[in-house]
Design a protein that fits this description.
The chain is an all-beta fold. It folds into two domains: 2-38, no CATH class; 68-141, RNA polymerase II/Efflux pump adaptor protein, barrel-sandwich hybrid domain (OB fold (Dihydrolipoamide Acetyltransferase, E2P), Beta Barrel). Helix content is 0%, strand content 44%. The chain contains no helices and twelve strands. The strands form three sheets. The protein has a four-stranded antiparallel sheet, with no helix packed on it. Strands 5-12-10-7 form a four-stranded antiparallel sheet, with no helix packed on it. It is elongated, with a radius of gyration of 18 Å. The termini are far apart.
Amino acid sequence: MKAYRITLDGRTFQVKVLDDPRQDEVRVEVDGEVFTVGVEPVVESVAPVAAEGAPAPAPAAAAPTPAPAATSEKTVTAPLPGIIKSILVRPGQQVQFNDELVVIEAMKMDNVIRAQRAGTIGTIFVTEGRQVAYGEPLLEYAD
């Protein structure tokens, strides 16, 4: 259970999240009173980091998170939801098949995302500490 102190319009509330926040509906306790609220994920916009000398792509309008099948073979997507624990590559870096790219922490376990092909890293779409959804693009190859 997570507990928060939230201030809204000068009023402070003690809030406890009683259920798993990944569900569609969650029970929360606000100053001792229990409510059931709807939950929707929010996709954070992060400025991509491009390889040196290459212009960073312009930020796109908010769109639904694509499923892995809808992405190109140049794009590496999150195989599970979690938090980006570490990014082990940089734009412009050469990688070989099976090299470690990103570590995603999910359910207190570190999940290493490995290169499925050799190539040059182009754009990195995530930052360390950021929550990612299943299928969300993590990085893209330049070639």
